[in-house]
Design brief:
single chain; mainly alpha; 3 helices
Amino acid sequence: MPETRSGGQEPEEFDAAEHSLGELVDEAKDGVKRLVGLELQLAKLELSRDVQKMAMGAGLAMGAAVLGHMFLILVAITIGLGIMALGLAPWLSFLIVTAAYLLLAGLIGFLGLRQFRKRQGFPRTSATIAESMALFRGGGRSSGS
């Protein structure tokens, strides 16, 4: 088979009238096998490209998280020193900052927990699986048909 510019293969000329039914079935089977193999190869290439991009994104996100954490530490120290400059004792200044961060963490944790409790699971997927199982078991036609 001659190759195309992209590396694929040109379709072969095939005259079905010159071949028996067994040969036609074999040819179709080989074509499907080749098609599935090429689709799998394409999927592997696309997946490896996406995995590389995801790894790069995760690394960059981790770097941003580390720098963000350092920023929060420096902000906490700056706020503590600012409160201390107002005349409060150093321990009280940093206790106020610590309590503020603790309240903020509690609020964020509460909001996150509330979001987890709002989850719905997979209602449409469960419904379609149940419908498909009923069809396979001979339970009748689907309501959508």
